[in-house]
Amino acid sequence: MEFQTEIKKELNQIRLKISLPGLYTEDYQVRMIRENTINGLIPISGHGEGKNTVYEYDITGLTSLRRYYKQKKITGEEMKGFLTQIQEVIEETQGYLLNPNRLLLNPEYIFYEDGGCRFCYFPQGEEDIRLSFHRLMDDFVQWTDYQDIPSVKTAFFLHKETMKENYSLKKIIKELEKMKAEEEQIEITGKEKKESEGRRYEPEEESGRQEELWQQRTVEYDREEHDWIARQEMGSKILKETDNLWNPVKRLLHRHKRPKWGDWDGVYIDEEEL
């Protein structure tokens, strides 16, 4: 659905204004958000302006996700934290009989505040949240901190998996958790082996094994997806046109070997919703 946006700045308030054709009719969705404090959602108000419907969101003190990651890179831990917040917001909206497909997942309309994100609920939204979530993964790939190997792995894995027609975020998260556990086991085994031999354990020595494990568990991109990735403008020029997407990733991993993944919080999202 096409709509127009505008940022209205006043002395004590900044509002995001979304307008679209059609006479305004208030339904239960706006009343539900206005009369309840729903975690993760930005307060909304609705009214008519001539023949248009207008929704306004109070974004005072907030920074859009796109602007926020213009100034810094996204890490693997931040991606995982974002997934946790998506899950929580979906559960909250469902608890108030709201449709999760009406969450705006364009980074222009997701706002960062105090280490977390807040979302705009668009009462007339029509897009499948799985499609908008995959497009957001495109942005994650571009924002990735390529000096941080867990970030590289997480971004590419999320992008690859969400290319599938009937993907499940719940299954993606379980797979990430499984890979994290396997890498931790490799580190523990390597450390125990070195200690038994009376030698000092060096985590870097195990990074090659972790890289091999990652590649064994990863299905290659098809040509269409590879071409998409290769066209992206990466400041570090990590990705170049090659016959195999994972060759440049492999070279990157050899240059920046870090074996440990960060902590991972379990996330659950109903497959019927995502």
Strand and helix map with partners:
Layout (H helix, E strand, L loop, with lengths): L3 E6 L4 E8 L6 H8 L8 E6 L2 E7 L4 E2 H4 L7 H20 L14 E4 L2 E4 L9 H15 L5 H13 L7 H28 L10 H10 L6 H9 L14 H10 L19
Antiparallel strand pairs: 1-2, 2-4, 3-4, 5-6, 6-7
Helix pairs in contact: 3-5, 4-5, 7-9
Features:
274 residues, alpha+beta, 4-stranded antiparallel sheet, 3-stranded antiparallel sheet, 7 strands, disordered C terminus
Description:
The chain is 43% helix and 14% strand. The protein contains nine helices and seven strands, in the order ββαβββααββαααααα. It has a four-stranded antiparallel β-sheet. Strand 1 and strand 2 form a beta hairpin. It is elongated, with a radius of gyration of 22 Å.
